[in-house]
Structure formats: C-alpha cells, structure tokens
Design goal:
Blueprint lengths: L8 H9 L5 H19 L2 E4 L1 H12 L11 E5 L26 H8 L3 E6 L27 H8 L5 E6 L5 H7 L2 E4 L19 E6 L2 H12 L15 E4 L10 H16 L3 E4 L9 H16 L1 H7 L5 H12 L2 H15 L2 H4 L5 E5 L16 H9 L3 E8 L5 E7 L5 H17 L1
Parallel strand pairs: 2-3, 2-4, 7-8, 7-9
Antiparallel strand pairs: 1-3, 4-6, 5-6, 5-10, 9-11, 10-11
Pfam families: Amidase
Protein name: Amidase
InterPro entries: Amidase, Amidase_dom, AS_sf
Length: 428
C-alpha cells in the first residue's frame, strides 16, 4: 500500500471514513516524514508534533462527521492560530500569540482537519526569504512567500497547506516545488485573521498535490456544497494559450512546456487556440508594483516607524518606495487595471481558461532570493482566479509547470477544468 503521507487529503478522508485507516496512523506517517526531512528542508517555523498526535488519537474515537476528519494540514505563518504563534515571518513578532483562529483555519478545524504546524514565510510575506529549501534540490529556492507550505506539500509532510498571494506567492512556489496551487478570485476567501500587505491584492489560497483537494478546500472555505464530478460534465473545455507580454522572458523549457501542454490537450479532445493580449497588458506589471508599494506603505507603516532597525532593507525599501507614490500615480495604476479588466470578457469569449507560464523557469539556485514574480503580477492585479499545475522537469531536474487563468468569479469552473487538464496531462 502507498504510504499514507503520499496520498491527498480527499483520499485520506475517504479512507478514514471507510475505516481503512485511522487519523493517528495518517498523522504518524506525516510526522515520521517530517522527522526524517525537516532538518534539511526547513518547512516549519513552529511544529508541535505531540499536540498534533494527541488530536489525531482523539479523532480515532470520534465519528467521521466532517469532510476532512483526521486529515493533517499546515498553515502559513501570516495566518492566525489560537494555539500556535503567528510571527509574520519576522523576529519582531516571534512571541505574537493570537487569541482567535483565522476564519480559514476555523473552517478546516470545523471540517475535522488537524493542524500540524506553522510553515515558513518570507518576512511580512514579501521578498526576504526564510530558512526553507526546495525539496527537489536543497541548494535551490522553494519560491516565496508561501515557501514552507509549498515545500511541506512537495516533500510529503502534509497533503494540504494554506498560503497566500499578493504578487506570486502561491503560484510561483507551487511551480518551483512541483505541486498544485489555487489562488481564487480576490475576495472569494475570508481574510479575517490573515496579515494584510496590500488589501486590493491580498488573497488567501491553498496548495496540494491533487487538484481534487483544491476543489474540496474551495467548497469548505466558501461554505458551498462540494460538487460531484458529474456536475461539470457539460462544461465546454476550451483552453487558449496566451503568450502574454513577457513570453520571451521565460526560459525555452518553460515556453516548451506550455506548447506541449496545448498539444496534449488538443490530442485529448479539448478545443484549443491562442488568445491575443491587449496592448494594455504590457503595462500591468508596472501597475501592480505601484499598487502593491502604495498599499503596503500604508498598511504596514506601523512596523516601519516602530521597528525600522529590525526590518530588512528589502522590506524597508518597499515601504519607502511606496510612500513616494502619489495618490494620482496610484489612481492611474488602478485605472490601467480597470481598462484591462474591461477587456477580460472579450478574451474569454471563445475559451474557458487561459494557459500561461507559471514562472520564468526552474527554481533558481541559492536561498538568498525567491525568484521572479513576473508571470503572476498581472493576474494578481486583475484579481482573477489562477491554478498552478506541475508538468515535467527542466534541464536541472527541477519542476516546471503551467498556470490556468479563469474569468473573475468562475472559480468552481476553473477548478473543474484544472482537474480535467491535470488528468489529461498526467496520462499524455
């Protein structure tokens, strides 16, 4: 039998419900993996193995009433928990112990899931990395800022993890670590208890190895009914490749992965094509930087003024640059965003999802930086739902992947398409 820590959350929950295993056996498999690998991967900033096992053993004797009964999950260290510290990736707040769980954490607890620990994030979910290494090659970055969450899922320490994205903090680490990630339509998931960076961009999300786990998490976090597979049987699966304004900034291998994915989907019966990007899309990356800097400078001004000597130069520079952005320049960036949003419906007129690169290429070597967020900035600014799917490896043996983009608000449809695309690519 496959080790329990190699299975996804949906499969583990089903096995527990059917009496084929127990929460404590599932937790033991994950804790054994953590014990064997955490010293080199460094996915956790706070780990309470005894508490996790205590909860799992208690779950052994409870009826499996929740859809994630007995299933482990991990939590990015910008998300509040009432029984573990939440330090926002900063030594300044290392002793910060919230009194309440974030809404998303409580939703999974109510579903029967068991938290294992808090995962490493970059400082204030920006660019200064923590200790985490890429499980595929420990000398390479796992990406950021959901570094520990992506590494924990990729290294079979947990089947499901919370992350977040303001620029590329879900999609990029998923791509670098070879796992799936879902960034919903901005505002779809409740951010109560989640650290704020740039309010119009901040989005809670999830990482997993199996797309069906993203579907389950979406249902739990939105309070909707988990769809049965047949509910989506009539969805037109038309996927268009969008090269975008930064296509040539991706490696040859990344561009080839996108082309191979399109060929495989076409051969599997999908309707495929290419979507042109409007000229305004070339302005979105810079607009994103302006919006992110402006909003961060105001939401985190307290940290800058009270702890300037204790924050990194990278984060201080973001605040200082953001303070120099005038209101007029900020509003102009939002107007650029809105002009692009007005053209989205036309882009989706003949397709259900856009296929684009998830990152420039393989994870860069070194742990001093987290890689380039170039291929996600525009989608974060446009507030569209995105799914990262792994596909193959590059010349260094590190993961590559694709990103699917959906229409705003069509999160369930995008997740259904992503599950189908993943299945087609795995069998191609």
């Amino acid at each position: 039998m496959t080790a329990f820590n190699r299975l996804g959350a949906t499969d583990l929950a089903r096995m527990i419900r059917e009496g084929k295993t127990t929460p404590s056996a599932v937790m033991a498999a994950h804790l054994d993996r953590i014990a064997a690998r955490e010293a080199v991967v460094g996915a956790f900033i706070h780990l309470d193995a005894d508490r996790a096992m205590e909860r799992a053993r208690a779950a052994d004797y409870k009826p499996a009433t929740g859809p994630l009964h007995g299933v482990p999950f991990v939590i990015k260290d910008i998300i509040d928990t009432d029984d573990m510290p939440t330090s926002w990736g900063s030594e300044i707040f290392v002793d910060r112990w919230p009194t309440e769980n974030a809404s998303c954490v409580q939703s999974l607890l109510d579903a029967g899931a068991i938290p294992v620990g808090k995962t490493v994030t970059t400082e204030f979910a920006f660019f200064r990395p923590g200790k985490t290494a890429n499980p595929w090659n420990l000398s390479h970055t796992p990406g950021g800022s959901s570094s520990g969450s992506a590494a924990a899922v990729a290294d079979y320490m947990a089947p499901l993890a919370f992350g977040s994205q303001t620029a590329a903090s879900l999609i990029r680490p998923a791509a670098y670590c070879g796992v799936c990630a879902f960034k919903p339509t901005t505002g779809a998931f409740d951010l109560s208890g989640v650290m704020t960076l740039a309010p119009s961009l901040d989005t809670l999300g999830v990482l997993a190895r199996d797309p069906q786990d993203l579907v389950l998490a979406h249902a739990l976090l939105t309070g909707t009914i988990l769809p049965a597979p047949q509910d989506f049987s009539d969805i037109l699966r038309c996927v268009s490749l969008m090269r975008g304004p930064h296509w040539q900034h991706g490696t040859i291998e990344m561009r080839d992965v996108c082309r191979r994915a399109m060929r495989a989907l076409s051969e599997s019966g999908a309707e495929t094509g290419e979507a042109a990007h409007p000229p305004v899309f070339a302005e979105l990356t810079e607009a994103h930087k302006i919006v992110m800097g402006y909003e961060t400078a105001r939401s985190r001004a307290d940290v800058y003024h009270s702890h300037r000597a204790a924050i990194s130069d990278q984060f201080a520079q973001l605040i200082e640059d953001g303070k120099r952005v005038t209101e007029a320049r900020y509003q102009a960036a939002l107007a650029t965003r809105d002009r692009a949003i007005a053209m989205i419906d036309e882009m989706f007129a003949d397709c259900d999802a856009l296929l684009v690169p998830s990152a420039p290429g393989e994870a860069p070597e070194g742990l001093g930086a987290t890689g380039d967020p170039l291929f996600s900035r525009m989608w974060s600014l446009l507030q569209l739902p995105c799914v990262a799917l792994p596909l193959g490896v590059g010349p260094r043996g590190l993961p590559l992947g694709i990103q699917l983009i959906g229409r705003k608000g069509d999160d369930r449809k995008l997740l259904s398409i992503a599950g189908w695309v993943h299945a087609m690519l795995q069998s191609a």
